[in-house]
Design goal:
Layout: E1 3-7, E2 11-12, E3 18-25, E4 32-39, E5 45-51, E6 57-59, E7 67-72, E8 77-82, E9 91-99, E10 105-107, E11 111-115
Parallel strand pairs: 2-11
Antiparallel strand pairs: 1-3, 3-8, 4-5, 4-9, 5-6, 7-8, 9-10, 9-11
């Protein structure tokens, strides 16, 4: 069964850090580009970071220099390290797998990040 399971969301103070993990199962990990998206309250879902199978990365301007996306092919896991968090980073964060072959997208259920003092 295809499954993306996010974890690591929490309540954190401004300036703090969190590490989100996405555990992937049921798909051939090596043929999917992976990404993290987020949806803040009252806003549209937006791209946060992408990592290709060639380990090239892309970041949204609003997280450059603060967030890092990494992929562990041996563990079928994608991690988003988030530093210097701001209240505007508060959102539900979703893991996404994008097939290089079919173009199909698979989504996780999301994990909630709240940045507040």
């Amino acid at each position: 069964q295809e499954q993306l399971v996010e974890s690591g969301g929490d309540l954190v103070q401004p300036g703090g850090s969190l590490k989100l993990s996405c555990s992937v199962s049921g798909i051939i990990f090596s043929v999917y580009n992976m990404g993290w998206y987020r949806r803040a309250p009252g806003k549209e879902r937006e791209l946060v970071a992408l990592i290709t199978r060639g380990f090239n990365t892309t970041y949204a301007d609003f997280v450059k220099g603060r967030f890092t996306i990494t992929s562990d092919n041996a563990k079928n896991t994608v991690v988003l390290q988030m530093n210097s968090l701001k209240p505007e980073d508060t959102a539900v964060y979703y893991c996404n797998a994008h097939s290089l072959i079919s173009g199909r997208r698979i989504w996780g259920q999301g994990t909630t990040v709240t940045v507040s003092s």
